[in-house]
Amino acid sequence: ANASYHELPLHANLDMLSQYDNFRWPDNTPMQPLGPRYHLSPKLSFPLARSWGHITPAVALEENYYDVQYMGNNTNASFNRSIPQYSVDSGLSFERSLAIRGRPYTQLLEPRLYYLNVAYHDQTPVPVYDSAYMIFTSDQLFRNNRFSGFDRIGDANQLAYALTSRWMSDDSGLEKVSVTVGQIRYFQNRRVLLCYQQDGPCLENPLTLGYVSPTAEASPIASRATYQLTPHWVASADYVWDPETHATNNGNLNLHYQPSPNQVLSVGYTYLVSGNVLQMPLAGVQNKPLHQATIGYAMPFNEHWSGIGAYSHNVSDNYSMMSLLGMQYDTCCWAMRFMGGRTFQSIEQATFTPQYNNNVYFQVLLKGLGSVGTSNPASMINTYLPGYQSIF
């Protein structure tokens, strides 16, 4: 469930996120931990914005409770974790007028700083149900957690800095070109790891998808460029260079069509170094670059019904990595979403075939009150349908 309260005393905003999940596994995976997880995340922010810039101090609390059953030895455990987060987001905006090929434009130059402080809490014995490392791009510069999901809350003492330049057309008011370059400076090593161990410490596998050195003093350098081809078509590209390895970390090309906020078609290609790590029969662990093709769409059928879906394909080894398909119903007072799909899990050792996890999402939104559901596919939708304005 989500709720927001704006214009509180001192011009504060309060955002609340709560979620309940109950994790169960097929009978053929008896060693997996299972059980319910309760998540609550209130965030209080104090935005101050002017035409020349902004500053937003914020404090948040990440609260998780687990009731875990270990099916392998028939034991139970509970974990209650409360982790405060402190952040300050700030930016300036400079502008000038110029002409390109006789057409008037306004160029904006926007430096931005984001400081984040999160205390370290040992989370090694907490099961990893749906968390993973985020692939590092310019989107990750200003996130408050380097992990997806709720099972891992990363410790942080860091400053993100970025510079964005935009060219706005004075004739149409549209953003014609945008270029962003940024990096994170770390003031301490990152101690929270993705790995899970019921008893004792664990060692992180550096081949884990999205892994970035926890001892590096600075993050990879992330860049993004977008170009408005027409009022509805946008081309974009991401490139990330890792100074720790002196090599490319990842790259992305995307073509995006969006004639309205809820109508989107997105086609993309992604390259990720060490992104195709597989346990293969006879050959053992293989670590290869990942070449991935993606497509996503959101299409209204009429005033109330719309369809939404996404698909990604491993071009390197020719198999599906993710598929998602669903329907949405929207009225003035409430909305409903039902989606199903599957995500790649592993290569089956006997038959050499891909194995998948099946996912089902059901959400109901009462407008003005909040939403409830079996789980929230928002991060997946944002990844494959950037710019889509979800009603949830």
Task: Describe what you observe in this structure.
With 392 residues, this protein is an all-beta fold. Helix content is 2%, strand content 61%. It is built from one helix and 20 strands. It has a 20-stranded antiparallel β-sheet that branches. It starts with a strand and ends in an 8-residue tail after the last helix.
Features:
392 residues, mainly beta, 20-stranded antiparallel β-sheet, 1 helix
Describe the protein's topology.
Layout: E1 2-8, E2 12-23, E3 33-45, E4 48-50, E5 53-70, E6 75-92, E7 94-100, E8 103-118, E9 156-169, E10 175-186, E11 221-228, E12 233-242, E13 247-260, E14 263-280, E15 284-300, E16 305-314, E17 319-330, E18 334-347, E19 354-366, E20 370-373, H1 378-384
Antiparallel strand pairs: 1-2, 2-3, 3-5, 4-5, 5-6, 6-8, 7-8, 8-9, 9-10, 10-11, 11-12, 12-13, 13-14, 14-15, 15-16, 16-17, 17-18, 18-19, 19-20
Concise overview:
Helices cover 2% and strands 61% of the residues. The protein has one helix at residues 378-384, and strands at residues 2-8, 12-23, 33-45, 48-50, 53-70, 75-92, 94-100, 103-118, 156-169, 175-186, 221-228, 233-242, 247-260, 263-280, 284-300, 305-314, 319-330, 334-347, 354-366, 370-373.
- Structural class comes to mainly beta
The rough form would be described as globular
Annotation, overall tally of beta strands? 20
Radius of gyration: 22 Å
Q: What profile does the largest beta sheet have?
A: 20 strands, antiparallel
> How many DSSP H or I helices?
1
Mean pLDDT: 89
Q: Beta-sheet strand percentage?
A: over 45%
Helix content: under 10%
Report how far the terminal alpha carbons are from each other: 9 Å
What is the element string, with H for helices and E for strands? EEEEEEEEEEEEEEEEEEEEH
- Uncertain segments are none
